[in-house]
Write a structure and sequence with these properties.
- There is one protein chain.
- The chain is mainly alpha-helical.
- It is built from nine helices and two strands.
- It has two domains: 35 residues, no CATH class; 161 residues, no CATH class.
- The N and C termini lie far apart (80 Å).
- Bound molecules: zinc ion (2 copies).
- The site of one zinc ion has 8 residues, from loops.
């Protein structure tokens, strides 16, 4: 008894990335239908797998572009004054008076808290960051950062933490930031040390795929808002 193997065996042998196409024989022919494997690669689910794998990388690359534009704008500038007043002026000399100078106030509560925080922050692997500014190193280093890294060489020393601390001190911007990052700690007036500890713990965590550490995410969020004219 003849068994048409092609009609029974092949569909189960066909790998999932192929479809079967049946070509009918010419009329009157005694030949059985011929089945060809037609490659339909990549199939939908392969495409979806690839898209799912690529999405976090593309998201990181999108954020690098936001950073790149912001670095281009703030090079050789006090980034605090850029955030608060949109002005581009050279960085101030006295580190401990950064915020009182930029906010144009004699004194601000916890205006040097960022110095304490900076000493203890350890940015999480596996990505690496410029120690001085907190901007990603390769393969996500923005072009405008340049290849000079480290405190004595980086052109954007303290960039990320100064933006985050400006947001932290400015009630109006912090409220908007906390709308975007629901788990960002609240600043509790009169409890500055505990608040700073909470922020410090949150700052270096990574919230998920396609994200840098939280501190940098907030800085990127601000730069996006500023570029969109929203802040
Ligand atoms: Zn300033
Ligand atoms: Zn740097």
């Amino acid at each position: 008894m003849d068994v048409d193997l092609s009609a029974h065996a092949q569909p189960t042998l066909a790998p999932p990335h192929y479809v079967l196409q049946t070509v009918s024989p010419a009329q009157g022919s005694s030949m059985p239908p011929i089945r060809h494997h037609i490659s339909n690669t990549p199939s939908t689910h392969v495409l979806m797998d690839a898209a799912n794998a690529a999405a976090p990388i593309q998201e990181l690359q999108r954020k690098v572009q936001v950073l790149n534009n912001a670095l281009h704008q703030t090079r050789d500038c006090c980034v605090i004054c850029w955030v608060v007043h949109r002005t581009k002026i050279p960085p101030h000399q006295n580190v401990k008076e950064f915020f009182s100078t930029c906010f144009r106030k004699g004194s601000l509560q916890d205006m040097t808290g960022w110095l304490t925080m900076k000493k203890t922050i350890r940015l999480p692997p596996p990505l690496t960051y410029c120690f001085a500014c907190g901007i990603p190193a390769r393969p996500y280093r923005p072009f405008h950062h340049g290849d000079l890294m480290g405190t004595d060489q980086c052109l954007f020393n303290r960039w990320t933490i100064l933006i985050v601390w400006t947001i932290w001190l400015r009630d109006d911007i912090r409220v908007k930031a906390r709308n975007a990052f629901a788990d960002m700690p609240e600043r509790q007036r009169g409890n500055e040390v505990q608040s700073r500890n909470d922020l410090q713990g949150w700052y270096s965590r990574v919230r998920g795929e396609g994200c840098f550490y939280n501190g940098l995410e907030v800085a990127i969020w601000f730069c996006e808002q500023r570029a969109g004219g929203l802040l």
